[in-house]
Specification:
The protein is an all-alpha fold and about 230 residues long. It is built from 8 helices and no strands.
C-alpha cells in the first residue's frame, strides 16, 4: 500500500509538472511577459492560467513530497526525515505562492481589469515577473537541501544516492544562475537559467523519482520474500 501511494504521488507530480511546463512554454512563446504587450497577453491569458494552474498542483505535490521520499527511502538519523518533510513543504509553498500570483494576474488580464490599464501595465508586469522569479528561485534552496539529506539512506542503491547528490547540486546551481540572471539582465545567462529550470529540473525529477520507486519496489519485494 505504501509503495502504491508513493507511486501515485510521483505520477501526479510528474504529470502536472511536465504538462504545466509545456503549456507555459506555449504561452511564453506566444506572449512573453517581459514584452508587456497587453493585447497579446490578454489573448493568451487562458494559456497562462492553465499552465500555472497545473504548476499549482505540481507545487502542492512538491510540498508533500518529503512524506513520500521518507516513506520510500527511510533516511538515516532521527531528525533527517522530519527535516526532509519540512524543507520540501517550504519549497512547495514558495512555488504555490508564485503560481497563485500568476493565475490571479492571468484572470485580471482576461477580464480587462483597470489594474492593467496601459498606464499601469508595465510596472505591474515588471513587479509580477520579479516577484515570481524570486519566489521560484527561493524554492530551489530548501528543495536542494532536502534532496541532499535524502541521499543518506541504507534503503536505496548506490547509483540513486550518487544521482541524488548530483541533483541537489544541480538545483542549487540553478537557483544561483536564476539569481545571477535577474541581477545582471544578461540575455545569455537568462536563457541558460530558464533552460536549467524549465527543462532540466523536470528531467532530473523524473529520473530521480522513477529510480526511487524502482529501488523501493525491489526493497519491498525482498522484504516480502524474507
Amino acid at each position: 500500500m505504501e509503495h502504491r501511494s508513493v507511486r501515485l504521488h510521483a505520477i501526479a507530480l510528474l504529470v502536472t509538472w511536465l504538462a504545466g511546463t509545456v503549456v507555459v512554454l506555449i504561452a511564453s512563446a506566444a506572449a512573453p511577459i517581459a514584452v508587456a504587450d497587453l493585447d497579446l497577453l490578454r489573448a493568451n491569458a487562458g494559456w497562462y492560467a492553465a499552465g500555472y494552474g497545473l504548476f499549482f498542483l505540481a507545487d502542492g505535490a512538491i510540498a508533500l513530497l518529503g512524506v513520500s521520499v521518507v516513506t520510500a527511502t527511510e533516511p538515516d538519523g532521527r531528525f533527517r526525515g522530519p527535516a526532509i518533510i519540512v524543507l520540501f513543504a517550504l519549497s512547495g509553498t514558495l512555488g504555490v505562492l508564485a503560481d497563485v500570483r500568476m493565475v490571479a494576474a492571468a484572470q485580471l488580464l482576461a477580464v480587462g481589469s483597470p489594474v492593467l490599464a496601459p498606464a499601469n501595465a508595465a510596472g505591474f508586469l515588471s513587479e509580477l515577473n520579479a516577484t515570481c522569479n524570486w519566489l521560484s528561485t527561493a524554492s530551489f534552496l530548501p528543495a536542494a537541501l532536502a534532496t541532499w539529506l535524502a541521499a543518506r539512506t541504507a534503503h536505496a542503491g548506490p547509483g540513486w544516492v550518487v544521482f541524488t547528490r548530483f541533483s541537489a547540486l544541480y538545483q542549487l546551481a540553478t537557483g544561483i544562475l536564476s539569481a545571477a540572471a535577474f541581477f545582471t539582465s544578461e540575455a545569455a545567462l537568462t536563457d541558460l537559467a530558464l533552460a536549467a529550470a524549465v527543462v532540466g529540473l523536470p528531467v532530473f525529477a523524473a529520473v530521480w523519482l522513477i529510480w526511487m520507486l524502482r529501488d523501493m519496489h525491489i526493497r519491498v519485494h525482498k522484504e516480502n520474500i524474507a
